[in-house]
């Protein structure tokens, strides 16, 4: 017992050992919220207040739930595999699998990721002849997800005009389409579970009495439906333990509602509101920076953070002239950290938007530094992997039209647009899936389509007794995918990714506790369901679901939902010590010895879409707060004067956030001198020349190009009028300047010829 609790401060200890009532732990970053939550689970189990199966714990990411399970295993001598610890989506997936009949779903229902969802909507719009200029698929998707996140079905959404009524109609049709195809999107996982539990009293009461303790991490980012879901699962008797930080609420764009914190306090009659104010993660300068920055936000619940760790290193700030230089600078700094003994996995490079990672990845790759990207294009989202998954989906559920359309003519089988139209017409006419409609297509088209369905059936037949990895291997060959990429010029990478799928299946089967020989297609009924049937007092029989996937679905179904829910990270070989690249959003909850926050430029961070409203800027500021507080010992901030993004060069001002940090915590680094002053011709593009600097805070203004012109300077040109210099390349006779002439646009001018005047 002592063991579990001896590493806690008095407030943490109080939180961990609270009586079984609902409680809210409101505390800033790095104060030990997640540690408290995990320790509480262990303490509750160790003291016999609850059995492992009586705990429901919700984490924000799959990674976080894995970590929590690992920490629990280290603290307690129990098997954590069957515990209900996961994300909202993951937990709902399990509940729906276990109770698919009651939920009105086929056992092999499949999960649409957002990419699949968008294409399903596009397909619907096309079938309904909807004008996609007026109703763009993406907007329809936002509409649908927004409604679902609030817990509303189409008939519950109020629409006051024809335009909105059309959205509602499309929502309804989309739901019907999904139902017909046996697929559910992410928001549906939650809504379906919510509806199932609201409607089905015995089931609801069963789970309510089972989950005596419900614990939620990152509570500030729950949306309306998740909150309602929690309320329903808790019923009258469960104790809900919520931990969160209003300053880290960064998912408003996905419907997160920070107001849930005060609603929770009120509705769950929280008597215990505990604040944790000691930060254990970051050194003083880093923490001061975070505190000073977030003080600029107006809507806060208010709390403080202090540290005993001492000031530590100052926060280092670097200005560069281009994103390429930024990447180069990061690499140099990271290398010297590594030389000093830092682990690569303890160094994180954060960015506001995924598009920024490419340049950094390229530089890391060229320098032979192993790295791992979280988010971005993930393994299961790669085109070739998606194709392979689509074959597997079809083998599991013939009526998944999205999967059907993805691979019916991939690799090419001579199935043209006309044949597909014919097929779609037939499917619509009889209200059946594309697969089922194949026999209704006649002629040559019918023959080719028939060959495709035979292929799928043959693959199912040949693999039905085989374990998952072998099934995957056979599918890769039979489908023709391997052959296809073998003949493609740049197919080697893709083949490697496809081969990885076999490894991924092997790993998955063993991690999730399926027997190595368990047939991929057969559900748990065939392999003795572990969760026994329970007859409730009123004679209703339910299967009491274990959280273990192997007891509620077949290896194939489980693997496919894993592919949709996890998307997978696959950049570095597992176990390799690699630099960590991710967006600020996905860094939530994590910590690293050293953190680089890159691209701190107006328009990028804070993001341009946020700047219309003050609440938008406040959300960006919280995002910056999250980013800063990931760092334990070293924090680096960088901004670049120019940046290529989405194929365009942008010319940027440095982020306003620099002005919101405390001067005494910062150290502005000088741009590096890259060449000798008299070595004009050997000079790389846009090199810096040193000049004495006046104040540390305006380095940009104190460094000059050798041409006599400065970036940021206003100039006049005979033909183009007034403009501002945004970049200077070369030197001496080769000096050229990029100048923004407003309505005349951006010009690249030779400075020896252009006859510019200063204004
Ligand atoms: P975030 O808001 O970023 O999610 P958090 O509040 O969940 O942060 P944790 O991740 O639980 O914070 O803890 C931050 C770090 O401090 C971890 O490394 C944790 O192990 C450590 N820590 C927490 N409490 C203590 C303690 N009492 N003594 C020593 N270290 C602690
Ligand atoms: Mg945490």
From TrEMBL:
Domain UvrD-like helicase C-terminal: 284-589
UniProtKB keywords: ATP-binding, DNA-binding, Helicase, Hydrolase, Isomerase, Nucleotide-binding
Protein's UniProt keywords contain Nucleotide-binding: yes
Catalyzed reactions: ATP + H2O = ADP + phosphate + H(+); Couples ATP hydrolysis with the unwinding of duplex DNA by translocating in the 3'-5' direction
InterPro entries the record matches: DExx_box_DNA_helicase_dom_sf (IPR013986), DNA_helicase_UvrD-like_C (IPR014017), DNA_helicase_UvrD/REP (IPR000212), P-loop_NTPase (IPR027417), UvrD-like_ATP-bd (IPR014016)
GO BP annotation list: recombinational repair
Occurrences of domain UvrD-like helicase ATP-binding (ranges): 6-283
Sequence positions that bind ATP: 27-34
GO cellular component, one term: DNA helicase complex
E.C. no: 5.6.2.4
Highest taxon, organism lineage: Bacteria
GO molecular function, one term: 3'-5' DNA helicase activity
Pfam families per record: PcrA_UvrD_tudor (PF21196), UvrD-helicase (PF00580), UvrD_C (PF13361)
Protein family according to the UniProt entry: Belongs to the helicase family. UvrD subfamily.
Protein name in the entry: DNA 3'-5' helicase
UniProt source species: Glaciimonas soli
């Amino acid at each position: 017992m002592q063991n579990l609790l001896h590493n806690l401060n008095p407030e943490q200890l109080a939180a961990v050992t609270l009586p079984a009532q609902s409680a809210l732990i409101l505390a800033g970053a790095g104060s030990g919220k997640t540690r408290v939550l995990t320790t509480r689970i262990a303490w509750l189990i160790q003291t016999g207040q609850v059995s492992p199966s009586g705990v429901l714990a919700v984490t924000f990411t799959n990674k976080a739930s894995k970590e929590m399970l690992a920490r629990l295993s280290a603290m307690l001598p129990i098997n954590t595999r069957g515990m209900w610890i996961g994300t909202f989506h993951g937990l709902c997936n399990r509940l729906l699998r276990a109770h698919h009949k009651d939920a009105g779903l086929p056992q092999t229902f499949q999960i649409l990721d957002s990419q699949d969802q968008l294409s399903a909507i596009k397909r619907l719009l096309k079938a309904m002849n909807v004008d996609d200029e007026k109703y763009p698929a993406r907007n329809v998707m936002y509409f649908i997800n927004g409604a679902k996140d609030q817990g509303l079905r189409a008939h519950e959404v109020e629409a006051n005009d024809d335009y909105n009524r059309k959205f509602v109609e499309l929502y309804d049709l989309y739901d019907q389409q999904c139902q017909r195809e046996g697929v559910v999107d992410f928001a549906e996982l939650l809504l379906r579970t919510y509806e199932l539990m609201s409607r089905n009293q015995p089931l609801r009461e069963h789970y309510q009495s089972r989950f005596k303790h419900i614990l939620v991490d990152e509570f500030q980012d729950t949306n309306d439906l998740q909150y309602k879901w929690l309320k329903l699962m808790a019923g009258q008797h469960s104790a809900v333990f919520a931990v969160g930080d209003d300053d880290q609420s960064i998912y408003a764009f996905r419907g997160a509602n920070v107001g849930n914190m005060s609603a929770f306090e009120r509705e769950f009659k929280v008597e215990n509101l505990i604040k944790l104010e000691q930060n254990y993660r970051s050194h003083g300068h880093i923490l001061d920076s975070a505190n000073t920055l977030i003080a600029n936000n107006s809507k806060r619940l208010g709390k403080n953070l202090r540290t005993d760790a001492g000031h530590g290193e100052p926060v280092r700030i670097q200005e560069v002239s281009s994103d390429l230089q930024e990447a180069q600078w990061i690499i140099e700094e990271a290398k010297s950290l590594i030389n000093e003994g830092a682990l690569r996995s303890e160094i994180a490079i954060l960015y506001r938007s995924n598009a920024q990672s490419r340049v950094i990845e390229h530089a890391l790759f060229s320098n032979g530094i192993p790295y791992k990207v979280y988010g971005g294009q993930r393994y299961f989202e790669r085109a070739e992997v998606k194709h392979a998954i689509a074959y597997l989906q079809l083998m599991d559920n013939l009526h998944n039209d999205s999967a059907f359309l993805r691979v019916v003519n991939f690799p090419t089988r001579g199935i043209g647009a006309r044949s597909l139209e014919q097929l779609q017409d037939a499917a619509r006419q009889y209200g059946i899936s594309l697969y089922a409609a194949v026999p209704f297509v006649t002629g040559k088209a019918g023959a080719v389509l028939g060959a495709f369905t035979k292929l799928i059936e043959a693959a199912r037949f040949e693999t039905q007794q085989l374990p998952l990895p072998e099934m995957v291997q056979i599918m890769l060959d039979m489908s023709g995918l391997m052959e296809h990429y073998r003949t493609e010029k740049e197919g080697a990478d893709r083949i490697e990714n496809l081969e990885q799928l076999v490894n991924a299946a092997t790993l998955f089967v063993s991690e999730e506790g399926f027997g190595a020989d368990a047939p991929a297609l057969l559900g748990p009924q065939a392999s003795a369901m572990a969760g026994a049937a329970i007859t409730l007092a009123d004679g209703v029989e339910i299967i009491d679901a274990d959280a273990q996937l192997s007891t509620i679905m077949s290896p194939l179904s489980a693997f496919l939902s894993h592919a949709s829910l996890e998307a997978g990270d696959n950049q570095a070989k597992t176990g390799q010590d690699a630099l960590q690249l991710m967006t600020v959003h996905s860094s939530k909850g994590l910590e690293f010895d050293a953190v680089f926050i890159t691209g701190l430029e107006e328009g990028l961070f804070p993001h341009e879409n946020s700047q219309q409203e003050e609440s938008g800027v406040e959300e960006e500021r919280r995002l910056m707060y999250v980013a800063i507080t990931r760092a334990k010992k070293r924090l680096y901030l960088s901004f670049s004067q120019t940046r290529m993004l989405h194929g365009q060069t942008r010319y940027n001002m440095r982020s306003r956030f620099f002005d919101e940090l405390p001067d005494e915590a910062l150290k502005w680094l000088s741009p590096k001198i890259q060449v000798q002053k008299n070595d004009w011709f050997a000079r790389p593009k846009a090199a810096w020349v040193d000049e004495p600097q006046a104040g540390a805070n305006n380095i940009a203004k104190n460094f000059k190009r050798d041409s006599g012109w400065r970036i940021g300077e206003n100039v006049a040109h005979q033909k183009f009028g007034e403009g501002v210099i945004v970049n200077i390349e070369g030197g001496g006779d080769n000096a050229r300047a990029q100048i923004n002439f407003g309505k005349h646009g951006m010009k690249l001018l030779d400075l020896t010829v252009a006859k510019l005047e200063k204004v």
